[in-house]
Amino acid sequence: MDKKAMYKLSYGLFVLTSGMDGKDSGCIINTAQQVTSEPNRISIAVNQANFTHDLVKKSGKFNISIISQAAEFALFKHFGFQSGRDVDKFAAYEHCKRSANGLYYVTAGINSYISATVEKEVDLGSHTLFIASVDDMEVLSDTPSATYEYYQSSIKPKPAQTASTGKTVWRCTVCGYIYEGEELPADYICPLCKHPASDFEKVTQ
User: Fold this and answer.
1) Model's pTM, two decimal places?
2) Going residue by residue through the chain (205 aa), what tens digit of pLDDT does each one get?
3) Are residues 159 and 171 in contact, defined by beta-carbon separation less than 8 angstroms?
4) Half-sphere exposure of 83 (CA within 13 A, CB side)
5) Using alpha carbons only, what angle is made at residue 100 by residues 39 and 71, rounded to the nearest 5 degrees?
6) CA–CA distance, 27 with 18 (Å, rounded to integer)
7) From residue 167, how far is each of 3, 110, 146 by CA, in Å?
């Protein structure tokens, strides 16, 4: 099975932001789409381990900042490789503004944002599917949206080439983190981007 076939699915990348009781946070998600036009509704799927997931669930509102091809890898590191439980991601972060709903949206490497209010949620096990009504939206630039495939090919840094050692390692296909060992535990979680073992590929160095 070639897991890289998943990269060919034409879904985008987004910074999901929410907040409640003076706490703001954001995370990277790759599942957001319009589900109805009249009334205008979107759906998002969010990993239940993310702090932003908890904020969306409690506050019932969120913003989606749509990542464009102008985005730099630093955006993914900032919102994807650290937890809002440990750091305030918006402290001293300059590339953001508050929308009419009082939540932050990102302004750098973004081509538009959408504000929404949750109407329904579905527990999917590892993720929650939120279905929400659109309250506001704005186009910020004409730069094309970044698909997951574009991220893999053009934004994510390529792994450094090293001399062949014959050693087997496992590389995270999302952030490039390397796990050394002949076998990767089935329940392993990437310590950088928090993606599961299914997002690692076996590499012989």
Assistant:
1) 0.82
2) 776 676 676 778 999 999 999 999 999 998 999 999 999 999 999 999 899 999 999 999 999 999 999 999 999 999 988 889 989 999 999 999 999 999 999 999 999 999 999 999 999 998 999 999 999 999 999 999 999 889 888 998 876 555 456 678 888 887 778 888 888 898 888 877 777 888 888 887 5
3) yes
4) 14
5) 90
6) 9
7) 22, 40, 34
